[in-house]
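Sequence decides. Our protein:
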Amino acid sequence: MIKKEMIAMLLAGGQGSRLGVLTSKVAKPAVAFGGKYRIIDFPLSNCINSGVDTVGVLTQYQPLRLNAHIGIGIPWDLDRNIGGVTVLPPYEKSTNSEWYTGTANAIYQNIEYMESYNPDYVLILSGDHIYKMDYEVMLDYHKANNADITIAAMPVPIEEASRFGVVVTNDENRIIEFEEKPANPKSNLASMGIYIFSWKILKEALLKMSDQSNCDFGKHIIPYCHAKNDRIFAYEYNGYWKDVGTLGSYWEANMELIDIIPVFNLYEEFWRIYTKSDILPPQYVSADAKINRSIIGEGTTILGTVENSVIGPGVTIEAGALVKDSIIMKDSSIGKNTKVYKSVIAENVEICEGCEIGVGEEAPSKLDAKIYAFGLATIGENSYIPADIKVGKNTAISGITTPTDYTNGELASGDYIIKAGDR
């Protein structure tokens, strides 16, 4: 029988609705990041760098691009005869067929997959965080404490703690209280959604709690194990970790990459981030182009000016155009003399000449003031913006737009255009 000491289960089925139009056609873990990568590359690279060579990737929402990106796992050295990477979508069973309804329910529906490796330990990961972590060190900590469950946790500002699952520990780092998104947190140690379970403990808890609707680790599994006095420890992590769940944090995490010495370094030899790379020609930068403090993807053509921005592969920036404080994803094009300020522009977007994006005074979004905030203009993939259009801040555009969609050639701050067929 195959035997693996530790296998990883990577939860990548999330819609990421707080990223708005960026995730209307693609799962959040498949969203581009840092001009070259996709968000899921980070936990996958962490696995292979940590010596974890068996990874089940649980997909559900809009999985096409994610599945194509992962393929058989070649970029992460996860194309193995035994183990490797396996994409695990929900599937029809003889008695019933159901979607994954919660994080633990998704894992429960794949008990047979885990069983087939007879693991001692199961590592549970989210597919939508940007960080580098050696899971082997965490496993050593788990063993040293003779733990049943180890939860990676990091200190956060106390005023932000209510957004997370919060743990309260004793002197030995054993968790004595666990509160999921408490109104008045008793501690600032936040769960990162990274767990190591001893397999028999996980299996027993999943079978026991399987009838819970929307069965979730933070709400059901951890409290259940805690109630029966399992040994649960917090593994404190103090490195860089970013939940890129909002447009603001996504934009910020990209912008942090362009510092001279970035907080999060993509250039370290010993902890590489692997990704599926397309075969693209080198960048072309014209004599008149100006580039300042930016990341520029392969296959880009730059004839205009780029400042403080992250430009994905295959992007074209025409003469006279200015892109500043922005993220422009794969295969998009910015027309002549168009100015783009503090915007997130998804893949395969065409913005024609003479436009101004991200200008004017801020106003709250009429579509969703929580999502479309931070002063950003956000344009979903495959969108088209005709020539000489002005677009304000906290705006959202998705789809092929025409001049008649705009009032006097303008989309005011806080306004939006979502074409039929785009959600």
Summary: Residues 13 and 59 are 4 Å apart (CA to CA).
